[in-house]
Write a structure and sequence with these properties.
Layout (H helix, E strand, L loop, with lengths): L15 H16 L5 H14 L7 E5 L5 H10 L8 E6 L2 H17 L4 H7 L1 E5 L13 E6 L9 H11 E15 H17 L16 H10 L3 E9 L2 E3 L2 H9 L4 H7 L4 H18 L1 E2 L5 E3 L1 E9 L1
Parallel strand pairs: 1-2, 1-4, 2-3, 4-5
Antiparallel strand pairs: 5-10, 6-10, 7-9, 8-9
Helix pairs in contact: 1-4, 2-3, 7-11, 9-11
The structure holds S-adenosylmethionine (SAM).
InterPro entries: Methyltransf_11 (IPR013216), SAM-dependent_MTases_sf (IPR029063)
Protein name: Methyltransferase type 11 domain-containing protein
């Protein structure tokens, strides 16, 4: 999760079944305003600015999770998306794809007839690995969005090449990665306090490739994959905790790969010790907003480019 360079940190390696395990709690977090919400909103706006959705033929959400980017795109642009545009919501986790199907079915059952409902009827949830987008054809897709996904694949350059292969000439690709995540630093501090008390060796936080944590690194990766007109920016992506104890409990029991490197080596009551320490660190280090919520800062890198 971190991009820092400690001694031989383990690589961030997460399987589709690991994401299956956390799909339900991830979807719940996403619906309550997770740190993903600002980057998703901005990425959709960037796509619309560089290549308006009224010319979209196929829109591809890579590593869609519970479908937050697809949902945001439909709710803000359904009235201009052409009536024959397909929206492919893809993820290698069956659990995530199944949640997108449930969201689509709920929308089709609850929305009034109109462009929002008809756009949802053209959403196709698909199990697909970002590193191999077959059977999608070359030069097929007009818009791609990949929010916090590609840096955590086994072979990110391969995933970028696949995005480049399926994107039409002139098509647009918007993606994000993490520059800084204070909450991960706080988790490391909490673990370093809790594990000696528990009497187990403190695990090392897995890291994703350092290149993805810098604007220059992401620019180079995109250019190497053949993309042009690369534009990058930073955006704040905070976690807002209205009630620290409840949020920390939910986070540490979510099965999210951001926490399982700690929780998988602990028993239930031992996780409570990490919870206690994390609550303490958050209260010590975080700003409190005017509503009394603690703010755990994070900074994302957003990129947009063309084929
Ligand atoms: C941090 S979540 C982001 C989900 C979603 N994009 C969002 O903004 O909420 C990462 C997602 O990437 C998916 N993922 C990770 N590696 C993948 C791969 N190789 N191919 C496809 N999806 C992948 C995971 O299953 C998970 O749903």
């Amino acid at each position: 999760m971190s991009s820092s360079t400690s001694n031989n940190p383990p690589k961030f390696e997460v399987k589709a079944t690991d994401w299956d395990r956390t799909a339900a709690s991830y979807a719940q977090l996403a619906s309550q305003g997770s740190p993903m919400s600002v980057p998703i909103t901005k990425l959709v706006e960037m796509l619309q600015t560089v290549s308006p959705f009224d010319k979209a033929t196929t829109i591809l959400d890579v590593g869609c999770g519970p479908g937050s980017a697809t949902s945001q795109l439909i709710s803000t642009h359904h009235d201009i998306i052409p009536s024959n545009t397909q929206l492919l919501a893809t993820d290698f986790s069956r659990g995530m794809v199944s949640i997108v199907s449930q969201v689509r079915d709920f929308k089709l059952g609850s929305l009034q007839d109109g462009t929002e409902k008809s756009t949802w009827s053209r959403v196709v949830p698909l199990v697909m690995d970002a590193q191999d987008l077959h059977p999608l054809l070359d030069d097929f897709v007009s818009h791609i969005i990949a929010n916090f996904v590609l840096f955590m694949t086994d072979d990110p350059p391969k995933a970028l090449k696949e995005a480049h292969r399926v994107l039409k000439s002139g098509g647009v690709f918007a993606l994000s990665s993490w520059h800084r995540m204070d909450w991960m630093d706080y988790l490391v501090i909490a673990a370093s306090h809790a594990f000696p008390t528990i009497g187990k060796p403190t695990p090392q936080m897995p890291e994703f490739p350092a290149q993805w944590a810098s604007v220059d690194g992401v620019r180079e990766l995109l250019r190497d994959a053949g993309f042009k007109d690369v534009q990058l920016e930073f955006v704040g992506a905070p976690i807002v905790m209205p009630k620290v104890e409840a949020s920390v409990h939910a986070f540490l029991n979510s099965g999210n790969p951001a926490v399982t490197w700690i929780t998988d080596v602990l028993e239930g009551n031992e996780v409570e010790e990490v919870e206690k320490q994390l609550v303490k660190v958050v209260k010590e280090k975080c700003e409190v907003n005017d509503k009394g919520a603690h703010i755990l800062n994070g900074t994302a890198i957003l990129a947009i480019c063309r084929n």
